[in-house]
From TrEMBL:
The keyword Oxidoreductase does not apply. Keywords: Aminotransferase, Pyridoxal phosphate, Transferase. This is Aminotransferase. It comes from the Bacteria.
Length: 394
């Protein structure tokens, strides 16, 4: 067999892709075990039937051929209007590329920003695909570490050194896995570093409808930042459309035109009937988005109450201002996040993600996805707290 490229064999830098516990939990479910899965951001509700009806009507109506690669004019206009309304930044269809999900948008953004061997920065902890996405685009993935003591918020001083010679900086607010909504002063610091070092800021904003405290602010909305910011968005989280693979990249017109050329030689667009359904979903306004988000706010509050009451010194919930996740600090047990997650799955049939899946900054933590019904979540949290308390060294 001919040798594989170093680009594809090096996506995970010789290590795991971070999803080991998730894969093991799914294998146990397939074997008939009763596992409470608190791993990935998959809603416990399905896509709204009206969206599926729109999708079906479009497909039956004939929109099953090749769709325009940058996206249909109708959907690009709808996304542009949505972005302009929510950020205050003038946006037209020429600023929008429709992609098969937010992940494809992140890849396209890094392909636009990086030449081979150039440095792409990302904030640690991060969504597990980030470093691999940078490497897939030919870049050198460099983590900028944060700490639990600062709530995992990046500080300009920590960014300034790695930014020298870099070409891009990937940020995520509301943040997965930490649940933080970046405040204005954090984003101003990021913008200052980006301007000083002529960086592209690549902003993953797929959780923009899941904000519990504070307000979402896009880096693209800051002064002078629209010309150097590429924003990934999606309907996966806002409309429970994870499997529909419908997202977008927003940025300067020339960058979007070039990214559309990339789409021509990679994805070749998104099915037209899915785009039509997405356009109709956006047209229904914010009420469906609020409805989809509501359980996660409620479950965030439930988690905070249970962990505060039963976690003792063994487990502490970090403040979660948004998203469908909460990080739990289990360092008092003396266990790594990976060891804790493996042991919890084996002993109690509860699957959580190790903090180390998201970077070394979150070592000694586990991420809980708020993706099961309230009663089952509460039982799992009480069990987790009891499990953690039993492992605190005497």
């Amino acid at each position: 067999m001919p040798q594989l490229s170093t680009r594809i064999t090096g996506l995970n830098d010789g290590g795991s892709d971070g999803w080991d516990v998730f894969y093991r939990a799914r294998a146990l479910v397939a074997a008939g075990h009763d596992i409470t899965e608190l791993t990935i951001g998959e809603h416990d509700r399905r896509t709204d039937p009206t969206i599926l009806q729109d999708m079906h009507a479009s497909a039956v109506g004939g929109h099953t051929g090749y769709a325009a690669v940058p996206g249909t004019d109708g959907l690009r206009d709808a996304v542009a209007a949505r972005v302009a309304e929510r950020t205050g930044v003038a946006t037209t269809r020429d600023n929008v590329l429709i992609t098969p999900g937010g992940q494809a948008a992140l890849f396209a953004a890094h392909m636009a920003a990086l030449d081979g061997g150039q440095t792409g920065l990302y904030i640690d902890p991060c969504y597990a695909t980030y470093p691999g996405t940078i490497r897939a685009a030919g870049g050198r993935a460099v983590a900028v570490a944060t700490t639990p003591d600062t709530g995992f918020l990046p500080h300009p001083r920590a960014l300034a050194g790695p930014a020298r010679g870099a070409r891009s900086l990937l940020v995520n607010t509301p943040n997965n896995p930490a649940g933080r909504v970046y405040p204005r002063h954090t984003l101003d610091g990021i913008a200052a570093v980006a301007e000083a070092h002529d960086l592209w800021v690549i902003s993953d904003e797929v959780y923009d409808t899941q904000v519990w405290d504070g307000a979402h602010l896009s880096p693209r909305a800051l002064p002078r930042m629209a010309a150097r910011t590429l924003v990934a968005g999606s309907l996966s989280k806002s409309h429970a459309m994870t499997g529909s693979r419908i997202g977008w990249l927003v940025g300067p017109e020339d960058a979007i035109a070039r990214a559309a050329e990339l789409a021509t030689v990679t994805t070749y667009g998104v099915p037209g009937f899915i785009q039509d359904a997405a356009q109709a979903a956006i047209a229904r306004g914010t009420e469906p988005e609020t409805d989809v988000a509501a359980p996660f706010r409620r479950r965030r509050d439930l988690l905070m109450r249970v962990v505060a009451a039963e976690g003792g010194e063994a487990v502490r919930a970090l403040p979660a201002e948004g998203t469908m996740y909460v990080l739990l600090d289990i360092r008092a047990t003396g266990m790594t996040g990976a060891a804790f997650a493996d042991a919890l799955l084996d002993a109690e049939g509860i699957a959580v993600m190790p903090g180390e899946s998201f970077g070394q900054a979150a070592a000694g933590h586990v991420r809980v996805a708020l993706t099961v019904d309230d009663a089952r979540l509460e039982r799992a949290l009480r069990t987790l707290a009891r499990f953690a308390r039993a492992r605190v060294p005497a």
